[in-house]
Specification:
25% helix, 7-stranded antiparallel sheet, 35% strand, 5 domains, alpha+beta, Thrombin, subunit H
Length: 504
């Protein structure tokens, strides 16, 4: 196609459309020349800047390939990991055992002992990448978790035995180490700054094909995955091809920096892989190197779903979030001012829709992290900064044992919704194994009653109804006699408090 025909096409369809038609018709060389000519013509004619940019982008695509440079600079720091684990295996049974004729000619041990267990090596493969001159290598925990021997091979052919430094099953990350001179290092990026649609490159050893490269985009962020021993919110999703053996390898941006650690795939899908964001991996890696373990974050609250009944009963101005049912004394939540009845609506700037969001968010953070909680308290929004504690240094409170039974009518009682409550007394506390001295004790629950359906139990202590303290059976009768369409019960059970909402 000559210059005159090109100009005619430009006038008829516009520069961007012309470029697209030529790209479709020609090969790489024709595309480059056509794009270059389109840009030149557009500039001369003073046409729209967007048109110019579109054609310029087409030119950039064909004047160079940044992935080539990324692979050349990154590959030396990506390693192949071979593991060996000794496992018990039952030997094949001898179908001719006891046959004198067979044993005379072949011997009795041809099948290695009938049904006996033996120790055999089980091999595995994975990927990893070097993060320091000291030989620290970041990989997935499932790659090395049960390995008795770990062998690391570099791109240049050097091979070394590696030792485990630390493992974190929760986030499926591990750090191993080799001792070697002149090690290449792969720089770590900032996963928080990545964008959906951004190009990324995966390097690893899928199915034993060493140093394989795939490319794609970040398809989504903050994905939640649930699997045995892994329940993590925040995975990056990519369509860069990831296969068994890629595990532990890097996901690299166009700046040549690691933004994720390839971890999981959906086996029945195509183009759906997941990576742990490198910002999370950095924190975990530092803890593993320093302590050999991860110091998991601890808040010290019990949370419940924010039901429609609770929203109405407590006049809560939001419909999404999670309500704090109990605050452990001396916990970070207690220290920094979170209170029972607070409705958590965001953590660290991320919206909280339900109780699961709270659990995931806290568990995905580390001890010492400073986290901003936004809560509603008495209808007003508050912002509270909490420095998380170390969950490993906390002993879970022992559940109090209770003797279930029907208390004697030695105190005043009242019955509503199939629930019989009694005045709190020393004898009843001893009978039920209760330490709580306030509130009313649930003495009876009728079979099939509303109280039973709500999950109340004999021995529960009702502390409040719609924020009003229950100090006598008259308080209970008064609360039940109101015209509220919904009731919110604050209940003490086994040394902890929880909310139970009642739709009237």
């Amino acid at each position: 196609m000559n210059r005159e025909k090109i100009l005619f096409t430009l006038k008829k369809f516009g520069v961007a459309g012309a470029a697209a038609l030529i790209l479709f018709a020609g090969g790489a060389a024709g595309s480059y020349l056509a794009s270059k000519e389109a840009v030149k013509t557009a500039v001369l004619n003073g046409e729209d800047k967007q048109v110019h940019n579109a054609a310029a982008y087409a030119q950039d695509v064909y004047t160079g390939n940044p992935i080539v440079g990324i692979v050349k600079s990154s590959s030396p720091a990506v390693v192949n990991i071979d593991t060996e684990m000794m496992v018990k295996q039952r030997a094949v049974s001898n179908p001719f055992q006891g046959d004198p004729f067979f044993e005379e000619f072949f011997g009795g041990d041809i099948f290695g002992g009938a049904g006996q267990e033996r120790i055999v090596p089980q091999k595995g493969k994975g990927s990893g990448f070097i993060v320091s001159k000291e030989g620290y290598i970041l990989t997935n925990n499932h790659v090395v978790q049960d390995a008795d021997k770990i062998k690391v091979t570099l791109l240049d052919g050097r091979s070394y035995d590696a030792k485990k430094v630390g493992q974190d099953p929760t986030f499926d990350l591990a750090v191993i180490q080799i001792k070697a001179p002149s090690l290449p290092i792969l720089p770590l990026g900032d996963s928080d700054k990545t964008e959906v649609g951004e190009w990324v490159v995966a390097i690893g050893n899928p199915l034993g094909f060493e140093n394989s490269v795939t490319a794609g985009v970040i398809s989504a962020k903050n994905r939640t995955l649930q699997a045995p021993d892994v329940n993590f919110q925040g995975f990056m999703q990519t369509d860069a091809a990831i296969n068994p053996g890629n595990s532990g390898g890097p996901l690299i941006d166009l700046n040549g920096k690691v933004v994720g650690i390839n971890t999981a795939i959906v086996p029945y899908a195509q183009g759906i892989g997941f990576a742990v964001p490198v910002n999370m991996a950095k924190q975990i890696m530092d803890d593993l190197i320093k302590h050999g373990e991860v110091r998991r974050g601890w808040l010290g609250v019990t949370v419940q779903p924010l039901t429609a009944s609770l929203v109405e009963a407590y006049k809560i101005p939001v419909k999404e979030g999670s309500i704090i049912a109990d605050v452990q004394k001396g916990s970070p939540a207690d220290k920094y001012g979170l209170m029972r009845g607070d409705v958590i609506v965001s953590i660290g700037g991320q919206k909280v829709k339900n109780s699961q969001d709270v659990v995931f968010s806290v568990r995905n953070k580390l001890a010492g992290d400073k986290v901003k909680f936004e809560v509603y308290r008495d209808g007003a929004k508050k912002s509270i900064d909490v420095t998380l504690g170390d969950i490993d240094g906390v002993k879970s409170p022992r559940l109090l044992g209770r003797k279930l039974g029907t208390p004697e009518a030695e105190q005043k009682t009242a019955t509503q919704m199939g629930i019989t409550v009694a005045q709190n007394s020393a004898s009843l506390r001893e009978k039920f194994g209760i330490k709580e001295q306030n509130g009313l004790i649930v003495a009876k629950i009728q079979q099939g009653s509303q109280g039973q359906r709500l999950g109340l139990r004999v021995g529960d202590v009702v502390l409040e109804v719609n924020r009003k303290k229950m100090e006598s059976v008259n308080d209970w009768n008064s609360a039940m006699g109101t015209k509220n369409k919904a009731l919110g019960l604050l209940v003490s059970r086994d040394g902890q408090t929880l909310f139970i909402s009642v739709g009237m």
